[in-house]
Protein: Ion transport domain-containing protein
Organism: Lygus hesperus
Amino acid sequence: LFSAANIFSSLKLVYIFSVNPYLGPLQVSLSRMVLDIMKFFFLYVLVLFAFSCGMNQLLWYYADMEKQRCPDAKTMTPVSTGNEPKTPDPDACIVWRRFANLFETSQTLFWAVFGLIDLDNFELAGIKTFTRFWGMLMFGTYSVINIVVLLNLLIAMMNHSYQLISERA
C-alpha cells in the first residue's frame, strides 16, 4: 500500500507541468488520454472475456487431464483416477493451470499480449489434433484482434486526443 502511495505522490508532480507553456498541453492531453484508455480498457475486457469463455470451454477438459499428470507434492507420484498408469511430469503442474478455469484462461490470454504465452501451451495431455487446431485458431484470432485492431485503435484514440489539445493550445 505504501508503494502505491509513493507512485501516486510522485505522479502528483505532473500538476506542476500546467504552469509551463511547453509541458502544459502535455499535461492536459495526458489527462484526456487517461479517459481514452479507460474507454479502450472496457472494450479490451469485453474481447478478453469473450475469447476466455470460448477457450475455457474448449480446453478445460484437457487441462484437467494434464492436472492428473502433475506429481503429488509429498510422494512425487502422479495423481491418477483411472486404471491407466500415468507418467509424472513436473511441468504439468504449471501447464494445466493455464486453461483450468475462466480466471486462469483470462490471465493466460492477458499475458499473451506481452508474448509470455507460446503455442507449446496447447500441447495438453490427451488433446486431439482437431481440438488443438481450433484452440490455436482461437488464440491466433485473439492475437490478431488484440494486437492489430485494438492496439491501433488505442493509438488512434490517443492521437486524436493529442490533436484536439494541440489545436486548442
About this structure: Residues 24-68 form the longest helix (45 residues).
